[in-house]
Amino acid sequence: MGKVVMNASVSVDGFIAAENDDPGPLFEWLVSGDVPLDGSGVLNVSQASYDHIRPYWDEIGVTIAGRHSFDITDGWDGQPPSGIDHVVVVTHRPAPEGWNPDAPFHFVEGIEAAVTKAQELAGDRTVEVAAGDVGGQVLAAGLVDEVRMDVAPVVLGAGKRYFGSVDSPHLLEDPDIVVQGSRVLHLRFPVRR
């Protein structure tokens, strides 16, 4: 079974977006370099970021996201982002009306069910959990193996917190990866068990 990783770009003050869901300059690092990160022609990062991010993206089999993220992205038009095989959406509501049932999206209720379904789909590959409320719930349940952060040099001041509404301490190990890219600092923390 693959590991479960919580991941997102984050401001230095701990936010993944403003209250209106606008990430502002948090993703500037994804277009600030000259090395193509994927085949889109849009994402170009520094060589250091590419060397860190591309292998990680290649090991992800499934992403877990909340219904809010699914809704604000219009379900990624039925195509999982970044070449990922499947998306598991944590929700109390069914798939949207008219949703293509063959799209590789799975709508489940509750974080435990989401992690179980994601691990089943991912096999030995990594399950990525989007930061925010769902990611914080998965961390609080003790189901996250490591926390990854792409820290952008920006202070948002307020907004959607990286760890969502987590309200109790959770210990992480010392960072075992620290990579400086252009407009970003990539960090990886194993979760202390």
TrEMBL record:
Gene3D superfamilies: Dihydrofolate Reductase, subunit A. SUPFAM superfamilies: Dihydrofolate reductase-like (SSF53597). It comes from the Bacteria. It holds the Pfam family RibD_C. Residues 111-174 form the Bacterial bifunctional deaminase-reductase C-terminal domain. This is Dihydrofolate reductase family protein.
